[in-house]
DUF721 domain-containing protein (Natranaerobius trueperi), 299 residues
Amino acid sequence: MRMQGIKGELTEFLAKTGFLKKYYDQIAMNHWHHIVGEEINKHCRPSKIQGKQMIVICSHPMWTQELSMRKRKLIKDLNKKTGKKIINDIKFVTGQLPENNTTSSKRRKENKKYCLNKDDKKWVCKVINDVTDHELQEKLQKIIQEDIQLKKDKKDQGYQECKKCGIMTKELKLNAICLQCEKEKHQDKLNSIIRVLKESPWFQYEEVNEVLHIEITRTEFNAGKNTVYNQIKDQLKQAKKACKYCYNDQNYAWLKDLLNQYVLLVTESSPKEIGDSTWRKIVGSLGKDYLRIIDNNRK
C-alpha cells in the first residue's frame, strides 16, 4: 500500500502521537518480501530500521555479498513502494533470521482487553478504514487502542492532554499546552522576530508586533533584538578580518552591509533618517578599524 492511501484522521493521529515514522517503517518492512521474492526472503529478512538505515539479517555471507551489490535498486524499490523516501541505506549482516512478519504477527496476537466505549471503537474503525493492508491495519488498530487506553489511565491519575502534541502531562501551561510545546512556541516567536528585524533592523516593538499579527511581549522582542545584535557583531568581526587580510569588492560590500544593519538596529531609525555624521559616529564606536577600511575605500 502506498502512503497516499492514508489521509485525514489517521495521518493526524500518527503525526500527533509520533507514530508516523514507525508507520512508514512498517510499510517498508512489509514490502520487503514482495520486492526480493520468496526465495531471497527465506534467507534474508529485515530486522529493524534505525533512522533511515534498514538492517537486513542474512543466513549466509553469500547472501550478504549478493544483496550488497543490489543495494541501490533495493532502496529505490522500497521507497517507491512506500511512496516516500524512508530508506537511504541498507546494512546487510549475517546472523539468525528474524521471524517472518506475517507468521510472527499471527503468533503474537494478544487477547489484551481495552476499556473502550462505543464512540472510541467507532472512531478507531473510521481512522484505519483507509488502510488496505490487513496486517498493517491490525497493527495500527492495536497502536491506536493502546494510545486511547493509556490516555484514559493517565487522566485517572490526574494527567491532562496537551492540545497541540497530545502528550499526557501534569505540567500544562495556562493555554493548555505542555512545557515542550510552550518552548517551541516561544522559539517560533523568537525566530519570527529575528526574521523581521533582519529585513527591517530599525523596526521597533510596535512595528514588529503589527507585521507579525501575533501577540509578542516586550521581553520576547528584546530577546529577538539582542540575538540579531549579537549575530551582526560576530559577523562584523569576520568581515573586518576578511577585508584586512583579503581585501576585494565582495568583502567590502559584505562589511558595508553589516555596518548599515548595525547602525539601523542601534538607532532604530530608517535609512532615510540616518545622516553621514550619525553613521560615522555609530560605526566609530565599534572601533577605528571599521572607519579606516571605509575611508581607504573612498580614496
